[in-house]
Amino acid sequence: MRSSRPYAHPLLDGQKLICMVGGPNSTVVAFDKDTGKEIWRALNAKNLGYCPPMIYEAAGKRQLIIWHGEAVNGLDPETGKVFWTVPFESYQSMSISTPRKLDDYLFLTSTFGKSLMLRLAADRPGAAVAWRGNPTKKTSFDSVFGTPFVEDGHIYGTSSDGELVCIKAETGERLWSTLAPNGGKKTRSADVFIVKNGDRFFLVTEKGALIIAKLSPKSYEEISRAHLLNPTSAAFGRDVLWSHPAFANQCAYMRNDKEIICVLLTEGRIGE
After folding, report:
1. Is beta strand 233-235 parallel, antiparallel or unpaired with respect to 220-227?
2. Annotation: CATH topology of 1-96
3. Which of 16, 74, 116, 219 is 20 to 30 A from 213 via CA?
4. Which among 107, 97, 100 has a CA at the least distance from the CA of 133?
């Protein structure tokens, strides 16, 4: 059994620390957070991927969502019992972005045309395929690592070529797409990190720009942007910044491989 190196962060759930581990029948393992004693282990996958464990409620039950490189699964977080499994193999095990739940839907997206919408059963833990993205027909989008934002029946996210896209959650139909956040040109793996704040969005690009914009089913409206941090890593012949920002206390926290900065976002001022 071959297992990829785990990169996903663990999930703290009550007394349990739920971790992507790897190895025979131990793709995911729950430990006692105080003692480290194993509580349960579950699933058998050759490739872990990178996606962190998530817990959502559906059919009146808390369900632990585990998306490894070969399938997406719903488990009982208390016992590790597998409720359901839907095969969904990602390119080179790049199951990275966090699955997003919207009403009875669960959306997953990965690079090279991989996206999947599941409908979660209402009467018992279960899931069925609602639709799959089709890059040829330009439905849905295929994020490399950015987690989409879901709201009011719509999903916003980035495709593998750097397009910011809005789709209908129910069908995957594209309502609009734009390359504006990434400089107006298609660029491989140029994801945008998306965080909502009030009626606006913070968008952070791989070049270290922070964009304030409005996103709606009708359009993308850029309000302002500022370059805050230089990229220090390299990918596909260019410098990139692929570190997700954090926001707290009216500040943005960003890092590259050389420094961490805190930027004030109070009205009328952007500064360190």
Report:
1. unpaired
2. Thrombin, subunit H (2.40.10)
3. 116
4. 107
Model pLDDT for residues 57-78, shown as the tens digit of each residue: 999 999 999 999 999 999 999 9
Q: What is the pLDDT of residues 153-206, one digit of tens each?
A: 999 999 999 999 999 999 999 999 999 999 998 999 999 999 999 999 999 999
| Pairwise CA distance, residues 54 & 67, whole Å | 9
Q: Which of 192, 191, 210, 214 is nearest to 201 (CA)?
A: 214
Q: Would you say 169 and 150 are in contact if contact means Cβ atoms under 8 Å apart?
A: yes
Length of the chain measured in residues = 272
Predicted local confidence at residue 4, as pLDDT: 45
Q: Taking the domain 97-244, which CATH number applies?
A: 2.130.10.10
Which residues are CB-neighbours of 155 under 8 A, at least 6 positions away? 100, 102, 107, 148, 149, 166, 167, 168, 169
User: How is the chain split into domains, by residue range?
Assistant: 1-96, 97-244
Give how far Cα 148 sits from Cα of 4, 157, 212, 223, Å: 24, 5, 17, 20
